[in-house]
Design brief:
It contains 12 helices and 6 strands. It has 357 residues and is α/β, with parallel strands linked by helices. It has a 6-stranded mixed β-sheet with strand order 3-2-1-4-6-5. The protein is globular and about 75 Å long.
């Protein structure tokens, strides 16, 4: 097996018996990372606690992912801890995000509607549903200790990950993220799994997927989306995602509609709903394109009152967007928009502490 990467500080933590938690998803990289890390820890006599941690994302996960994690834990002879976001899985997060976006738009708390989906630049699917719940569990289990959190990140995976370091600490210095297979190739990952006698996730060699995370990932290639849609276990999720595409008027991957990947899985009503959602998306985009840059939402919006011309423009855009999406919007004329901006500015001003005399 190829040697793993480490740092002097990680080595010192291991020598001191620090807890080691390995995040596992059922995917090949976390599987190989766990196998290699345990072999390394056994070889150097690590005496601290060890465990595997799986963040369950709900209905978006492959059926086999939990089984793969349990088989890995059994093979390594270690506890598997499964953690979940208390308010639901990733699909529920996407749906709730759309409802929040629509509510904020209708009440003029924002200028444009925002996508409900996570994106490569805004991966709350990872931060909220994995990182946050895992670190919270580790801090609860190991209070006042420094903890090593192992991930299967590899530099060869992407341009973004090509700059990944071997180890890094969180802001408080309590949790050290260790990437022991950061320098491994995909072939070396599969070789480690095969050598162990365990089976890799069936999505790779049976379904033809190149990556295993969610069944339908916001970062998946078209071939991976097509392969995922071909599996009956994912059909209900596929229809649920497409329904949210149609309702929100936002495509699953920027300009790529998941509903176009496997339209044969949709009934006549769903196909008609998707077509209507696409038409509404075009109307929304054309209307929102008229909004000038100084009018767009920024943190702390509104920063000033709009001019009469800007208020008229925003009123017209909002009317078109609300008509296209069937939203129950207020603030559709100059006077009500001015009044709403004044209300928001006053509320913001009232929250600013005044300087002492």
């Amino acid at each position: 097996m190829k040697a793993i990467a480490s740092t002097p500080y990680i080595d010192a933590l291991i020598a001191g018996g620090a807890p080691v938690a390995i995040g596992v998803s059922g995917g090949k990289d976390s599987q190989a990372s766990a196998i290699a890390t345990f072999a390394h820890l056994d070889g150097i006599g690590h005496t601290g606690p060890r465990l595997l941690v799986h963040a369950d994302l709900g209905s978006v996960e492959w059926d086999a992912s939990s089984r793969i994690c349990h088989e890995l834990a059994s093979y390594l002879g270690v506890e598997l801890v499964t953690v979940r976001r208390t308010s639901g899985g990733l699909m529920e997060r996407w749906e709730a995000r759309w409802l929040s976006s629509a509510d904020r738009y209708q009440s003029l708390a924002t200028v444009t509607l925002v996508p409900c989906w996570s994106t490569p630049a805004m991966r709350f699917c990872t931060s909220e549903l994995k990182t946050h719940v895992i670190t919270a569990e580790l801090k609860r289990r190991f209070p006042a200790q420094q903890i090593i959190n192992v991930t299967g990140v590899r530099r060869a995976e992407s341009a973004a990950r090509s700059k990944a370091t071997i180890a890094s600490a969180d802001a408080g210095g309590r949790i050290w993220t260790w990437r022991p297979i950061v320098e491994w190739s995909e072939a070396e990952v599969f070789a480690a799994i095969d050598r162990s006698g365990l089976l890799a996730h069936p999505a790779y060699r049976c379904f033809g997927m190149t990556r295993v995370s969610c069944r339908f990932c916001i970062m998946s290639s078209l071939p991976d989306l097509t392969a995922a849609a071909a599996q009956p276990e994912g059909h209900a999720l596929y229809r649920r995602i497409v329904a949210l595409e149609a309702r929100s008027t936002f495509a699953f991957q920027g300009s790529r509609w998941l509903g176009d990947v496997a339209p044969h899985l949709l009934d006549e009503e769903a196909r008609a709903s998707l077509a209507h959602g696409k038409a509404s998306a075009r109307a929304r985009q054309m209307a929102e394109a008229r909004i000038t840059k100084p009018m767009l939402y920024v943190k702390g919006w509104p920063l000033r009152m709009l001019t009469d011309g800007e208020a008229d423009l925003l009123a017209g855009v909002r009317q078109e967007v609300c008509d296209a999406l069937g939203l129950a919007c207020g603030f559709l004329d100059r006077e009500s928009i001015h009044a709403r901006c004044a209300e928001l500015l006053a509320a913001k001003h009232s929250r600013i502490p005044t300087e002492a005399a």
